[in-house]
Amino acid sequence: MRKTLLNVILLLLIAFIAFSCDKDNGNKPPNNPDIAMALTNYWEDQADMTAALENRAGTMDLIVEKIENLGNRRGRNEIAEINALVENYVNQSNAAGETFEQMILLENNIVPYGDVGNKGLFTSVCKGIYNKAKDTVVSGGRMVRSGWRVLSGSHSLRQVLRDPESGIPVVSHFAEKVARHNSERDACIRQSIMENNDQEGYIPLDRLQGNTPQEKVNYYLNLDEEDPLKMSIRRDVMWWDEEQRIRTAETARELGETGVRIVADAYGGNVGEITNEILYQHLSPDQDPNDKGTVKLTVVKESTGQPPIEDEKTIIINKSNAPANDSRITVIENAPQEMDLDLPSGVYDFIVIAEGHIRTFMKGVSVSRDELQTQVARLLDLMDNAIIVESITATPEVVNQGGTAQVTLACASTIGQNLSFEWSVTGGAYANFRPNKNNLTFRPTEEGIYTVSVTVTDGLNNSRTATTEISCLRSRLVFQGYSIYQEEFNDGLFNPGEIAALELEFKNEGTEDLEGIVRIQGLEGTGVGFYATNASVGAGESVFWLANVQVPTPYTSSTAKLKVLFDTEDENNNPVTISNIVEIPVDFYVEINPITSPVTDRVLTIRGKVANPSLTSAVMILDGDPEQAFQLNLNNGSFSQKIAITGSSQPVNHSVVVNATSGPVTASASANFTSHVPPTALRITLTWDTADTDVDLWCTDPNGEKCYYANRTTASGLHLDFDDTNGYGPENITTTTIIPGDYLVQVHYYSDHDYYNAIATSPVVVIRMNEGAANETSNSYYGHLNDSGDLWTVTTLHFDGKSWRYKDSDTHSVKASNTLPAKH
Questions:
Q1: Residue 158: half-sphere exposure toward Cβ, Cα within 13 Å
Q2: C-alpha neighbours within 13 Å on the C-beta side of residue 486
Q3: What pLDDT shows up at residue 84?
Q4: Is the bond leading into 594 cis (omega within 30 degrees of zero)?
Q5: Where would I find the H helices in 110-124?
Q6: Do 507 and 541 meet the contact criterion of CB atoms below 8 Å apart?
Q7: How far is CA 394 from CA 45, 49, 404, 574, 592, in A?
Q8: What interhelical angle do 125-151 and 242-257 show, nearest 10?
Q9: In terms of Cα–Cα distance, which of 358, 362, 423 is closest to 387?
Q10: Number of other residues whose CB lies within 10 A of the CB of residue 607
Q11: CATH top-level class of 477-585
Q12: How much is the pLDDT for 2?
């Protein structure tokens, strides 16, 4: 009732004002009813936003419930019902995106009088968060649909990742999670086949070729990822494996709600449970849950005594340093007066909305491990603030004698009134006094401190007064430029994540010498190493100051901002601080070294650099194939990655893309090349799924000579291309000459690089005969290694001089790594 009454009163006021304005009063600027309407409608429109998110969350609850109950209701129409719910979730996500679009339209109208730019309440921070939320909530719906398509067996992962509307980035922990689901389901299926268990008919053993369980396993695993039989068997795991049902339901929720999530007492229970949900939503994939701090957030009125706001409140939290393709935004509905929010270490923005009040925000709140941040959101009551005076800004704050001073007032009428301005200047003589609505320019003609005041009044005699000071000197310190004296990443540019010694040049363009103390501070996360020091700058002379400057690894801006302060005195011994804001461009980019075509060697090393020496990893994708994605280890920004090129009788075109993420900013580079690598008679490829682990491929030829890391080439022609010691592979053993006899293929877990814990890994071996030829054949083998020293005997290949035959063994044993040749 109060909300409706407030809207009616404000709308009547706007109509009355528009009708009663003096039509002949042309010297007054026109009123702006748009801001009044935006502020009046803000609470109702955010209520539409939260309602849309509630509907979406309710549908997700139904999806989760349906998936978890698949084991109890085994009718095939259950999948169709979940399909319908998923499509409804996509539509509701789109609808939620439209409500964020409406919030953006409101923000477009919340502009100061004269549109003087981003200041205080009138900045574009909220608009930016709503834009991000709109894209993320729509993408979340698409990710749920794509993930469900894979896990319900209607599409392969490759198919959905190549769909431009999949919502799932090709290289992301979301894609990895769905891929891991497939691997886990394959492990369940493999175990059941080996036990000759058809799981009540859900595994059609009679359709899997082979005379033994192992042969049937190999047949299943070697089916193409898009084979309908393989996809249906994977889907049906949900009918007979409860753990897989639970994990599938969890993944559906994660895909949909990691980006944008609504929490409230109706969803998260008590406040403690709500904050726990928020903590885990904002965790990065590799972030320790204990790496957290606390933000104590209190919401009060911006008035005498700062009383609490008893009206309904909504709080929106945005993790501003999250990667652009992995946004994290929480909407807290029915927020309490005070909350202790546990948040992972990072940088956050908050939007605070309350019924009957003007929304506010807090930008760039830094949260560090085990630290407490106290934040107070002060909201103006809409009914009690017909005029908002956000700021009064002098440019520059210190002006040289005879120079022009400019003062700008950022203000607005919240009820759409015309505004008039009364300016005054005291403190010294001046000339060229030129008031122009919410702007004033004048020329101080003597040294001293000037006080500038302005009173802004509307047609209903509401008024506000604002005051600022300007100092006038005969000296003027002006920034001339900078040079990089020393840097960590040697490219002649200033990069995120590096410490660089910057030489800043200033010139005294005034008529008198300057004496004082210089200080340099970092703004918006920029770190500065500089000791305050005495300085003297003669009239017309330049001076150079050297400062160590650093921007953090997850930097969010394209410039590093410094505030250079020079403390001095005017002729009346009044303290004066000359302030200069210096912006240094921050360059973040990826560069791939040129690749000479055609590539004729099977092993190609791709080198390049990422312009952030503090980053530890980037991602490289070969030929746009998500299954050929490599994690690059960075050393002071440089990378070097070996890849194995498939042989072919004809030239092949290739593409390489390297993506690097520094906070919310992503940089990428691409390169193209052709290859013409001679095909091989035999190629054995090993990959595995665990980072920072060392797994080795072995192949013993018919002469009994082993090809492996300590003997990379055998007399018979086997050759190991390279030894990957820190994760994923691939490692390849190839030969162009085959001799009759047995080739024993094995995989050894050399080291998990962890003395205390056993880290399991799942290797995959692909064996190709007659690579690149029309009669090429291949088989894939999937294994599991529990700890360092595990040895998996994959298979034995027998060549009788004309054709190949497999002698499957698939046995496991242990070979201690310290009994093998050491690696250097």
A1: 11
A2: 5
A3: 96
A4: no
A5: none
A6: yes
A7: 36, 39, 11, 18, 47
A8: 150
A9: 358
A10: 13
A11: mainly beta
A12: 39
Of the options 3.30.450.20, 2.60.40.1120, 3.30.930.10, 3.10.20.70, the CATH number for the domain spanning 260-381: 2.60.40.1120
Q: Tokens 């700062």 — which residue?
A: 306
pTM for the whole structure: 0.81
Q: What CATH architecture applies to the domain 591-819?
A: Sandwich (2.60)
Q: Which two tokens stand for residue 246?
A: 């639970």
**The two three-digit tokens of residue 521, written as one number:** 């501070």
Q: What is the pLDDT of residue 792?
A: 93
Distance CA 147, CA 160 (A): 8
Query: Can you tell me the distance from the alpha carbon of 742 to that of 739, in angstroms, rounded to the nearest whole number?
Result: 9
| d(C-alpha 449, C-alpha 472), whole Å | 6
pLDDT at position 14: 42
Contact between 239 and 152 under an 8 Å Cβ cutoff? The reply is no
Say which residue the tokens 């936003």 belong to.
49
Paired with 751 in beta bridges are 694
Q: What is the pLDDT of residue 265?
A: 58
How far are the Cα atoms of 215, 708, 743 from residue 807, in angstroms, in the given order? Answer: 10, 21, 10
Going by C-alpha positions, the residue among 815, 768, 778, 784 that lies closest to residue 690 is: 784
CB 229 within 8 A of CB 203: no
Matching fold, domains 260-381 and 387-473:
yes
Low-confidence residues of the chain: pLDDT under 50? 1-30, 266-269
**Bond preceding residue 730 cis, omega within 30 of 0:** yes
How many C-beta atoms surround the C-beta of residue 46 within 10 A? 24
Task: Supply the pLDDT for residue 467.
Answer: 97
For residue 672, the one-letter residue type is N
- Give the span between the Cα atoms of 437 and 431, in whole angstroms: 18
Q: What is the model's pLDDT at position 266?
A: 40
For the domain made up of 387-473, the CATH class stated in words is mainly beta
Encoded tokens for 282:
């904002």
Handedness of CA 754, 757, 762, 766 (dihedral sign): positive
Instruction: Give, rounded to a whole angstrom, the gap between the first and last alpha carbons of the chain.
Output: 77
The position carrying tokens 């093998």 is: 820
Q: What is the largest CA-CA distance in the chain?
A: 106
Task: Confirm if 297 and 341 have CB atoms less than 8 A apart.
Answer: yes
User: What single-letter DSSP state applies at residue 308?
Assistant: B
> Which residues touch 752 (CB under 8 Å, ≥6 apart)?
690, 692, 693, 694, 758, 759, 761, 787, 788
Residue 75 exposure: Cα atoms within 13 Å on the Cβ side: 7
Q: Do residues 400 and 475 make contact, with C-beta atoms less than 8 angstroms apart?
A: yes
Return phi, psi of residue 288, to 5°.
-70, 130
Give pLDDT, residue 153.
92
Q: Which tokens hold the place of 614?
A: 């503090």
* Residue 816: φ, ψ to 5°: -60, 130
In terms of Cβ atoms closer than 10 Å to its own Cβ (0-12, 13-18, 19+), residue 5 is exposed
CA 349 to CA 414: how far, in whole Å? 25
Residue 196 identity (one-letter amino acid): N
- Identify whether the C-beta of residue 610 lies closer than 8 Å to the C-beta of residue 637: yes
- Tokens coding 367: 């949260």
Q: Hey, where are the domains in the chain?
A: 34-257, 260-381, 387-473, 477-585, 591-819
Q: What is the pLDDT of residue 324?
A: 80
Q: Which two tokens stand for residue 609?
A: 């650099």
